[in-house]
Amino acid sequence: MSKFRKKKKGMPAVNTAALPDIVFMLLFFFMVTTTMRETNLVIENPRLPGATEIKKLEDKSLVSTIYIGKSKDPNRDGVGYNKVQLNDKISSADQVPAFIFSKRDKIAEALHPFMTTSIKADKESNVGTIIDVRLKLRDVNALKINYSTTAAADN
Amino acid sequence: MARRDNPEINAGSMADIAFLLLIFFLVTTTMNVDSGISKKLSEKPPADYVPPIIKKKNIFEVNINRNNELLVEGERMDIKSLKDEAVKFIDNGGGIGNPSEDGTPGKECDYCQGERSEASSDHPSKAIISVQSDRGTDYGTYIVVQNELLKAYTELRNRLSRERYGISYDELEQAFIDAKKSADLKSQVDKLRRKVEDIKTAYPQIISDAEPTS
Hints:
- The complex is a heterodimer of chains A (155) and B (214).
- By secondary structure, chain A is α/β, with parallel strands linked by helices.
- Chain A is built from 5 helices and 8 strands, in the order ααβββαββαβαββ.
- The termini of chain A are far apart.
- Classes of the chains: A alpha/beta (155), B alpha/beta (214).
- Chains A and B meet through helix 2, strand 2, strand 3, strand 6 and helix 5 of A and helix 1, strand 1 and helix 3 of B.
């Protein structure tokens, strides 16, 4: 009889020794997939227009981004939605060629034709600013551009 | 005498540390993929470049003024009807197309389902959409217009692709991309590429940006 009485009551504790392994696996997944944003925005986060006929940008290393929108610090940069941000500061369309050349330096010559310029402009920016930038891009033969938009629902 | 056996290190808080790191990366990760309307700019023309003379009926003129209003072919238009008008213009097929690269003369558009009116475009390969905007136009409106025009092309391409190959152009393009990526679909790549090219040349996207008015 005593044989049966000795049986322990209650559930045994779940072995959590493998928990760190699982968590580490998740951690490595996120570390590998994370891309830190290299530039911090000097302009306010542009409210991108919506569109349906969009294409994804494939290779991030071949993309240079130009931001256009409203400055976060209107006292220094002035008001309006037509500020052009290249790298980390507000510039003008005239600086675009230098910006493109500096991006090209880091990339093998054979890949230059595949480089894309992504224009992230605010909805309320003026087309004139975009066209100025576009003409400068054409001057330096950066012909592939992508107007960054959000995916809108089809109407 | 000192103890020989090392006490085991307590690994109980290992999970906590890992969780902390995990949460940090979860928060800083942005999974958004950049997407948008892709365009290829035309190369800078040489100084002595003379633009070719294009018949007026082959140009579909879209003007956007600084108040974000549309003027299409000389008439005010709502953005909602722009796509249908563009489809009508591209798909008109009133004449013969451009001669092909190997010198054979242009043919009539046998896949067009438009009205074949004399006053509108000759052939999809000749139909040019010209967008002229004011410098003061909102970028948002400009993108909406570009998007509507691209929608018109997508609609026509999808229709033609369904007629010829039984699937829409979007699906065809996707199948082509998938085939390029995977190893066991190698044999299909060329076939799909031909199909994609075929549809693309049938309805080439010719959207030109005219110099802005100021």
